[in-house]
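Course assignment 3, question 2. Fill in each field.
Student: A.L.
Task: Predict the tertiary structure for the chain below.
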Amino acid sequence: MIPPYGLTNYLQTQDAERLGGVARKLRSGMVEINGQPRSSGSPFGGYKQSGNGREGGIWGLEDFLEVKAIGGWQT
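Answer field:
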């Protein structure tokens, strides 16, 4: 069964090659490695029922922006 939540995963390993591959495949918004905290300004948020938005850094600001495409602009 796939869990319905995905806020944070924690990894403990000394195998640096394997670590990156596993961290990218995890379906969570944050991954903490070997007990090291995330740096300040890192995005905070989850996947699935843990929420889709982000807080912190540029990612927190993007929720308040709207994208607009304008074609044919003559300068």
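Instructor remarks: The chain has one domain: 5-60. Helices lie at 16-25, 57-62.
Grade: pending
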